[in-house]
Amino acid sequence: MKIVFLCGSLEPGKDGVGDYTLLLATELIRQGHAVKTIALNDRHVKTDVYSVWHDKETSVDVLRLPSLQTWNERMIKAKNFIDGFNSDVLSLQYVPFSFNDKGLPFNLSSKLNKLSHKGKWHIMFHELWGGINNSKTNTLKNRVFYFLQKKCVFHNLNAVKPFLITTSISAYQTHLKKYKVSILPLFSNIRFLNNHQVKQNTDIQAVNFGTFSGELDKFKNQLNWLKKVAEKQGKKIIFITFGSGGQFKLPSLNMAKNIFGNENVSDLGLLPAQEISNILSRSDIGISRADGLLWGKSGTTMAMLEHGLPVVLKGTRADLQLSVSDFNYQEHLYFCDDDYNNLPQRTHPVDALPKVAKQLYNLYTIKK
């Protein structure tokens, strides 16, 4: 099968959906398919970039079109790239801010329809619109903005008429119930490295990476729950964080230092994927800013779970929605209202990418 993936950016390590796209593309190539990738609105380049991206011994052709160019210029170049390939499927990886700076890509469908081809459209919704998990606390301004984002989704769906629609979590599937939507589980962008990492101490090493949540009270509950778990074991928590952290990084780190002690908290900043895998491999438990509703779309949560870590989510167990997948991750998810008398245990690492790639191909063939 010939597939062209389209997303916003393909700057390695700078765009989660872009990294997801490159990994999925190379895995499908390993499984015998022909795949190319296009970044339609890349803010990391100033001119057209034709390149080859490598994962292990597999490579995929990449076309990156800069956001500085007009959409008309980019669509002409993308169409030439696609027509020369004669693809069976065009797969759009949808995130609203990837295609519009304000997160309102109303005209996306008219641009996509210029890429007329013999194949069919697939849309993967990585995100829909804001406010899905906290609608009661949104301001009027936010509610109006999220309503417009919702209108964008339905407008683009009705105009493009994809033969397949997928998303990673059941909550999003429910919001798109007027369409037939299939679940395609997320996989980790941080690949597990089988390098036999060994812990250097007997304390409980907890990891947090990515962006801290603004819900500081819920983060505090997660930290306090971990402290109780450690105290029951006669141990202490060694808290390690890495990644950009975001605007709530400083208050979150101060909170962790107040609970665990300054000497037990480390901020390692931005790290390469290999080093992240090394740290996850020698840690005991992860802390996620995701809750029971949206955990299945969190790349950092997936990375921790695939590395065998139990993960503490925000909120309470009553909020947990199970993911439709083969991996049974819900058995390794914990909440602050769970019993803290037993230390959650690591499990065997999982490589979800090959299964997800096969699942996508099966969806393509079923829908043919």
UniProtKB/TrEMBL annotation:
Protein name: Glycosyltransferase subfamily 4-like N-terminal domain-containing protein
Alphabetical list of Gene3D superfamilies matching this protein: Glycogen Phosphorylase B
Domain of life, per lineage: Bacteria
